[in-house]
Design brief:
Elements (H helix, E strand, L loop, with lengths): L7 E6 L5 E7 L6 E5 L20 E6 L16 H14 L5 E6 L2 H11 L4 E7 L25 H8 L12 H9 L2 H17 L2 H6 L5 E6 L20 E5 L6 H4 L1 H15 L1
Parallel strand pairs: 3-4, 3-5, 5-6, 6-7, 7-8
Antiparallel strand pairs: 1-2, 2-4
Length: about 270
């Protein structure tokens, strides 16, 4: 994965004292797309997709505990806190509204942002975001931190193996680096916070009353979440649900153009 020479990096210091890392690409006066990564990942997970989106102002955050953002050991990893910080980042950067795109558990944070700050979110795109815990199918895929930290490359590859459609897929080295850069606490806390949020209420139920346009993209060969569960989102009025045959949990890495097409169509309508 590569980062464009045009990518602008910044560090935003928030009211809670934590610093969040932000990447921006594309014209600063264009409609905004905000991309939120999943657990044990970072803004770099979007590198292959971003060049296809830069007719927009594309913003990516490293959530607390990930990438170049702070990784405190004193809590603060609840989904509602991640969403609050994301909203504050948008405020600090002068963004009044945006289409928010979340991959995997990043879609959970995107949903919480829409709940907390509906005026900021003009539409939601969820990419392989499981609607509820009943849809979870993977075992040994990183629900708990390894006993020793940092984990070995082999342990990380094992943790990440269900993130792709085919067994034996070579996980990019850059993603190994992102897991190693986390702490044992930030890894375990972020995994636990997603579970806790979904235990409280499933995402389709949360979204159904918000009135936000919704696009759901789901790799049909997902090995972490039942792809048939994407149909649960149809309870959201007007939701568009699209399965992507031959792709797994990480279509943003496996086939970026197949994600970019419907995403850009959606953003053109709701950005």
């Amino acid at each position: 994965m590569t980062v464009s020479e045009a990518t602008e990096f910044s560090a935003v210091k928030l009211d809670d004292g934590h610093t969040i890392h932000v990447c921006q690409d594309g014209p600063r006066d264009a409609p905004v797309l905000l991309l939120i990564h999943g657990s044990a990942s970072s803004a770099r997970s979007w590198d292959a997709l971003v060049p296809l989106l830069t007719a927009h102002r594309v913003m990516r955050v490293d959530l607390l505990g990930h990438g170049r953002s702070d990784k405190p050991d004193d809590g603060g990893y609840a989904i509602r806190d991640q969403a609050r910080r994301t909203g504050e980042v948008l405020d600090r950067l002068g963004v009044g509204h945006t289409v928010v795109v979340g991959h995997s558990s990043g879609g959970v944070t995107a949903t919480a942002l829409a709940e907390q700050r509906p005026e900021l979110v003009s539409g939601l795109v969820l990419v392989n975001t499981g609607p509820g815990l009943g849809a979870f199918i993977a075992t040994g895929s990183g629900a708990a931190a390894p006993r020793r930290w940092p984990p070995s490359d082999e342990q990380i590859r094992q943790l990440a193996s269900t993130g792709f459609s085919r067994p034996g897929y070579r996980v990019p080295d850059a993603l190994l680096d992102e897991v190693r850069a986390m702490t044992a606490h930030s890894f375990a806390a972020t995994m636990g916070s997603t579970r806790a949020y979904l235990e409280q209420r499933a995402l389709p139920e949360r979204l159904a009353g918000l009135g936000k346009p919704l696009l759901v993209l789901f790799g049909e060969d997902d090995r972490r979440w039942r792809s048939s569960s994407a149909a649960d989102y149809r309870v959201v009025p007007g939701a568009r649900v699209e399965l992507l045959p031959g792709l797994g949990h990480s279509p943003i890495l496996e086939d970026p153009p197949r994600v970019a097409g419907p995403l850009l169509d959606f953003a053109a309508l709701h950005g």
